[in-house]
Amino acid sequence: MKLLMLGSGTSAGVPRVGNDWGQCDPNEPKNRRSRVSIIVENDAGQRILVDTATDLRAQLLANNIEKVDAVFWTHDHADHCHGIDDLRAMRYDRSNPLPGFAGRVTCERLRRRFDYIFEGQFGYPTIVYLKETSQAQMVAGFTFDDVEMPHGPVKSTGFRFEADGKSIVYATDFSEITPAMVKCFKGCDLLVVDCLRERPHPTHAHLEMALDLARRVKAKRTVLTHLDKSMDYATISAKVPKGVLVGYDGLEVAV
């Protein structure tokens, strides 16, 4: 299995509009962060895209990704879904819509906001056939499990993908660690985890919470993501323990 981190930044990205780098060194390319999304790939080359980030087109071009085999959404916040239109190019050579999956509430909100994606309009075909995650256990050569995570006043979905005897967990946008999360993520080979900043935040994990989740689930390796402008790559890399990587756009990790 392989992780490809398409984007590693917050909803505002790094730098923010106005060329605001915060504490991040602008001369370090790994500090330039687009909005979060990932691809997981199995040994057969099948790919699952998680979230259609606002910067999706640029991310796919930068990483030479022409197609994916399914799409999952963690939740419907803009930075995680407003690049959805860029899936159109992946529909052109398909005889049927892309399989898409999300939790019940997220499905309802995505359908309401992007009806043309899921229904087709004016002679244009349906781009994604959207199902609730409860309606499937295996997708594109992967088995998967999911869990609801507190994200301030709303919920986000954490995913565990397994293939080829390995597991990758994607847990972004959470503000509390629950027993259900620990159970779902336990013993994963790679944990990709929300880590907005060093100080606590009302709707996101901070550094200590991210490391605590990694310890509690006994993740073999951990990658931090959803990093804001205070999280300088070199500075945070020097602070994290062995086996923990500070994520960046374009990072690839084999498991």
UniProtKB/TrEMBL annotation:
UniProt cross-references to CDD domains, sorted A to Z: metallo-hydrolase-like_MBL-fold (cd16279)
Pfam family, one: Lactamase_B_2
All residue ranges annotated as the Metallo-beta-lactamase domain in the record: 34-226
Domain of life, per lineage: Bacteria
Gene3D superfamilies from the UniProt entry: Ribonuclease Z/Hydroxyacylglutathione hydrolase-like
PANTHER family: HYDROLASE C777.06C-RELATED, HYDROLASE C777.06C-RELATED-RELATED
Name of the protein this chain belongs to: MBL fold metallo-hydrolase
